[in-house]
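Field log, afternoon session.

UNIT: design team B
ACTIVITY: writing a sequence onto a fixed backbone
BACKBONE:
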């Protein structure tokens, strides 16, 4: 992805475990949240524990939303994303290059 090994070693921490065991431990600030959760329940946990850390004006990317085949392969993920943006009245933008979707929190 164009990141140096030093940058990764300094700034990336891999946390083994399931979402429900690990996400609640995060206490930092997030400018760009990229979610690849596959399942409805996993997206709900990510929304509950990580979205409160997203800065005003921050973006949230959704891997399993955007392409037509995602509706068949990941129906729970699609439902979770659409519920999330609808409840918060957020715009949902398609990324035609990567076949994903994203939203931006208010500033």
């Amino acid at each position: 992805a164009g990141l140096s090994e030093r940058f990764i070693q300094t700034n990336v921490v891999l946390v083994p475990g399931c979402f429900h065991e690990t996400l609640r431990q995060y206490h930092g600030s997030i400018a760009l949240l990229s979610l690849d959760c596959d399942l409805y329940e996993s997206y709900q946990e990510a929304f509950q524990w990580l979205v409160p850390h997203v800065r005003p004006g921050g973006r949230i990317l959704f891997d399993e939303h955007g392409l037509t085949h995602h509706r068949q392969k990941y129906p729970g993920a699609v439902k979770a994303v659409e519920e999330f943006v609808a409840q918060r009245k957020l715009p949902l933008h398609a990324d035609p290059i990567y076949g994903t979707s994203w939203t931006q929190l208010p500033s």
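LOG NOTE: The longest strand covers residues 54-62.
NEXT ACTIVITY: expression trials, pending approval
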